[in-house]
Amino acid sequence: MIAPMNEWDELVGRYLDGIASSEDLDRLQTLLRSDPGFARRFADAVRLDQYLCRHFAVTRSPAGEAPRLRRAVVMDRWARRIEHWWGPAIAVALHIALIGVLIRWVVWPSPRGESGVDVVMMEPTPSPTLDQPPEPMGPRTSRAGADTGQWTPATSALAPAGETSAPEMPEGIAAQPVRPERPLVPAVTIPGHWLTRHRYPEARRAWFARLGTWASEADQVAADALTRLMARQSSDGAWREDGSHPRALTSMAVLALLAHGEHPDTSAQRTAIRKGLDYLLGSDEGRGTSDLRTRALELLAVADAAAVLRRPEYWTAAKERGASVLSQALPDGGWGWSEREADPVLTAWCASALAVWHALGSGDARSRAAVARAADAMDRALQPAAGTLYYPPAEGRAYQRWARTAGAVLTLQLAGHQGVRVQRGLRALSGMPAAWPRTDGGSLEAVLLATHAYYNEGGPIWLDWIRRLAPAICHARQADGMWSTSGRSSIRDTVLAVLILEIPYRYPPAREWPLAWVIPDSPTAARMAYASYAPNPPFVCVP
Amino acid sequence: MIEAADQHERFLSYFLAHQSEIEAVIGAWVRDWHARQDLLQEVALVLWQKFGEYDASRPFGAWARGITVKKVMQWFAKQHRAPLPLSPETIEAVIAAFDETAPDPDEARRIEAALAECLETLPEKSRRLVRMRYEERRTLGEIAQTIASTLDAVNKALSRIRRALRSCIEERLAEVEP
């Protein structure tokens, strides 16, 4: 009796593992129809398979994600190229040479380091307040003043020996040196909603330890850029520059400050955040604008503030802006600049804002329906001839395809989709270079949306993207620590660059939200934050 | 309003208790993990929409399984390139088997806990195979390539591991039963 059992198990195994032949399927069907015992064994096997999927879905790390797109996009390319034995041999030799250079660099430091100068890995310095403007620091110049000609990570600050004391940190946050090889930080209690749980310094450190040193370096660049932004805030709390709506710019700046996750009550940035929010809530300038993107950005900023700062006025403001965004949805789904068709970029902003607002527990069921309809609208715009999720630009500007495709993918992900449609869109996006500045005129907004879409997907495709993009973004800083796409330092470009660098910790990936999206109190949501819907719960971060 | 909240509460308690079983039913036909997650979303939504029609005197699991199977068939009807792997007559037999063997929610939780322990007892080589299959979600072909083996050998090895896990779970459940 053991032999048939084994044979049955192997047959069912072939079916579950996707390698059953047509003969296997015929035999399986015959057995299922004729033998109830076999059918029960089949049900048990499927159940065990499901428990295994579930077990590993909970425990798997980002590094262990499915290599689906890597297979399609990266590995196939490699597999095609490596056709001769000498290909891998040269690659190995190059790696050995590179390791040799690195060892030489580490073991014999440059002469500049010999005159009583220590290299100290420092904690991100608390940002100065507006009363203490930041010391100017060029992107290619270390604190010791030596122009290295390369982007110098701000975490490896050079300081004279004996002056290496840790910077003063906000109350309750211990100053510790950041070292990539450090074990994960112990559990700490930090405030906030599950949506914001990755962004506090303790959680970020744990995250960086998994991602690698580039992540903490990019984080430090973002922190430095935020101090520059704070210095450019107007006295009434707004950020202004030509070509941008002040409310949109202020919303994005507030979002970038909040996303950096300093302690909301003790951070040096709190004054700038509160002044920005006071402007958004209190100022009449541009209030009730017909610019839908501005309203969506305002909703994102005040909803985020409601999650972090938990003040009723932010909740009320989010409710008002949420209703406004909802009322502008097109009858066929999505949001557009005209009533003719949905615009994927605008739709992505509106859907993001509503998704965050809904996840916070807005209680407005229309948000879910609006985002689901928007995703359907994106799906209808699919180009069947191209076979990919590619949205042609309305005005013939070819580079817009990245922004539009990224916006469409992001909207689908926010509506809870992970399947074929999203994979097609990501495959289409794989043609977009992970580089900045771009020679094809692509915008930082497109890069931001694409980065968010990759982050939501997770796994190797995301890590591959961000590992290449983050250093490029950091390196593109100007001498004044700001970013620019036109040659002049721009607040908007700087905020967008910072938001890109903050994506790994701003929100959990959308693929962790879907059931929370369908049913707000689903196990997904509960597992992520058991107390998220209780008033002002402490969130225990156990990396 | 209170009635609606009660209804929501009641639905959630039923759905959460049977979620794993619903996922298993979907998994009997749909093998792509992402497609399964998409379908689970759709099933959850349909169950919630139809919850008003649910007769509480009958088992929720059987009701949910019936709706899940209909949704799975609709999904295959929409996928022109992917035919239903098992015929409609077979579906009845499979659903009957699921109904007969469905664990109650407490038992399902105990099985999942036992599985976690049993995985720890697997030899390193077997654990590596399971991780490649379920954590890294590699295909059998990829696994065979990685460990320099054949498809058939990997299939046999995984079948042995699943059998061992099933026996281990049964033993552990028998230990805790009074």
Overview features:
heterodimer; A: 543 residues; two-stranded antiparallel sheet; 20 helices; 4 strands; 3% strand; globular; B: 178 residues; mainly alpha
Structure description:
The complex is a heterodimer of chains A (543) and B (178). By secondary structure, chain A is mainly alpha-helical. Helices cover 54% and strands 3% of the residues of chain A. Chain A has 20 helices and four strands. A two-stranded antiparallel sheet of chain A has the order 1-2. A two-stranded antiparallel sheet of chain A has the order 3-4. Chain A starts with a helix and ends with a strand. The model of chain A is unreliable at 59-83, 109-191, 384-397 and 518-543 (pLDDT under 50). With 178 residues, chain B is mostly helical. Chain B is built from eight helices and no strands. Chain B has helices spanning 2-27, 33-50, 60-78, 88-101, 105-121, 124-135, 140-146, 151-176. The N and C termini of chain B lie far apart (44 Å). The interface between A and B is large, with 57 and 64 residues.
